[in-house]
Every structure is written in C-alpha cells, then in structure tokens.
C-alpha cells in the first residue's frame, strides 16, 4: 500500500485510457503526457498500460507501506525521498516507511510516478483512469490507501534514452482537421505565423487560447471529436480538447494534434506561449 499523507494540487491515477465506450459518451481519459508515462513504465520494465500517478504542478506526500521500486518522469517537481533529492528518469528503490514528497517546480506541469507492477486501484470499464462518475473519486485524497504489488522478485530495469524536448518546446504539432480547408488564406496564415498564449482556462478536458482568430466558417452539424481536436468558435477562440474531452462537438475542427503535440501541450500552463506546426499526412 501507499498512504496519501497529502494529495498535492491535482493528482490522479491514470493509465493509457478507457477505450471502447465513446458511443456511450464516456471520455477516453488516460495520461495527459503519454510519452512521459510510458517512459516511467518502460524504465521499470512494467507494461506500458500499467497505471501510474499523474501529478500536476504541486506534488503529493506519500508514505510507502511496503518495499517497491519507483520511477518519476515528466515535469521536474524536485522529488524528495526521506529529505534527499532524487532524480527523474531512474529506478529508485523504496523501503517500507519511506516518504516521498515534492518541492519546487522547475519545468513542465505534469510529472508521472510509476511503481513496480503499476498501481492496482479499482478497474472500471477496463481502465484504472480516474474520472468523475466512472471511478469512486476523480483525484486522490488525504488518507487514501493506494494498492501496489507487494511481491518484489527479479526486476529487470531498462536504461533508456530520454527525450525531454517536449517539456520545454513551444512547438505544437498538428494535422489538418476536417474543416481546415474552409479557412481563408488569411486565417491559415494567422494560425501559423503568430504565437498563442495558454489562457487560465486549461485542464484535463480542454485548453483555451487567449488570442482570437477571425472565423468566417459556417457552423457545422455536431460531429465526432477526439483528444487533440482543435475547435474554432464563432468568436474566434481556439479550444484544444484534451484527454477528458467530450465525444462530440459543434465547432469547426481546424486541427488535430499529433500524439506528440498533445504531450507537448500537456506540459504547458497559464501564460505559456505555443506555436502550431502543420504536419503532412
């Protein structure tokens, strides 16, 4: 078990997502930055879909009630084990009674904590990803007991080359969306020639951008959307859907972020600047 002494700002158990239920209006959810989450599992030799703890901005305080091995990736939140600063992207042995905490946020927004064998929390619709009305809670809470594998035997850890560029890059890669060709030349030029600012309206469901784009596209019939879909509202606001997004939407879909683009955006926060880069199919 891992006891939650303090939950941090917004910490959730996430795997790669909940697939096969979108026809019922159930979001995919899952880790916001799939590269960092998969990296943590890969270093420990876990399955890539093993559930980890997604930590946002301010980290939790966790007491381990069994021996295990952990790995922390993604944002640098100055992880501390028993008052000693530890490194990201490495397997770290943890003993019963050890306390993991976090300090200063140096870069990025979301950090990922993986344990050997993954967190064994409640499975709902083939996923452990926390989401309101699907799982008992949508975030971890003080005094929660998180189940982990207590049977540590032979462990095969991996040395992996780590690419941290997406944590610091402001380039967000995207493909043309279904309504992209309805944009005028001027609108397209604006989308690729200027920088956009992340608004205070940003979370696991969607990121909004501050700058407006002239929108002359006619409204569309409500259609399918996915994590990474970039919608353009009648007022000219860009809304980028993220992992907990709805399954349909009625705004023109001008872009579809690549997986790398979603990962990059997941590590941005209020007032950060981004630029779109159009990819060819």
UniProtKB/TrEMBL annotation:
Alphabetized UniProt keyword annotations: ATP-binding, Hydrolase, Nucleotide-binding
Matching entries from InterPro entries are given as: CT_A_B (IPR003778), Cyclophilin-like_dom_sf (IPR029000), PxpC (IPR052708)
> Is Signal found in the keyword set?
no
User: What Gene3D superfamilies does this protein's entry cite?
Assistant: Cyclophilin-like (2.40.100.10)
Carboxyltransferase domain location is: 23-281
Q: What is this protein called?
A: Biotin-dependent carboxyltransferase family protein
